[in-house]
Amino acid sequence: MNESQQRAWDALALGPRWVSREQPPRSEPDRREQILTLDWPALRERVASCQACALAGGRTQTVFGVGAQDASWMVIGEAPGAEEDACGEPFVGKAGKLLDNMLASIGLSREKNVFIANVLKCRPPNNRDPQATEVACCQAFLMRQIELVKPGIILVMGRFAAQTLLKTEASIASLRGRVHGYALGEMTVPVVVTYHPAYLLRTPADKVKSWSDLCLARALAAQAD
Ligand code: URA
After folding, report:
1. Structural domain boundaries, residue 168
2. Which of 13, 45, 63, 166 has the greatest CB tally within 10 Å of its CB?
3. In ligand 1, which atom is closest to the CA atom of 118?
């Protein structure tokens, strides 16, 4: 792992608390190093066959991510839900439709200029919060996705994804409304945190705050162009 990958890893890491079901067991650093060298097809294959944590046993399929591989925007959510687990694509339920509408309101779409990924690639049972070991097992996948996309802006949806990506326990209220950074090589990719669309469905009054987050992200993306 080079120096910039190490910085990004440190920024993303909750610590390599490795729980392996793979035979023979590999050390987490070796596994991570290997994942960080993969190209798109190999990464997709590696995610699809992952048995690194117990979530593998309960999934219908992995949910790799969707969108343009050279997208200028990256959207990061938490984990697949039941509908995503069934169809293999992130954000396809009601929350996904809201996300698509939010993106469309600033001229974006998952078909053209956004790559959407989750912190976890497998569905946690009963929509429970992801656990630290699950995040640790999955984090190299997300990190490699960010490296391969090289986005100009990252929009993080919801408390869990924001806390994981930014390695903080701060509340979403304190994280949104300002610009964070994700180290990528010599670059720092601007990161904007906003509410998760599922939360916005329950709390529509906060859509106005989310709109201002989108406007902030759009202004930053325009600067990066
Ligand atoms: N919520 C997420 O965070 N990601 C999905 O893919 C679906 C719902």
Report:
1. 3-224
2. 63
3. 4
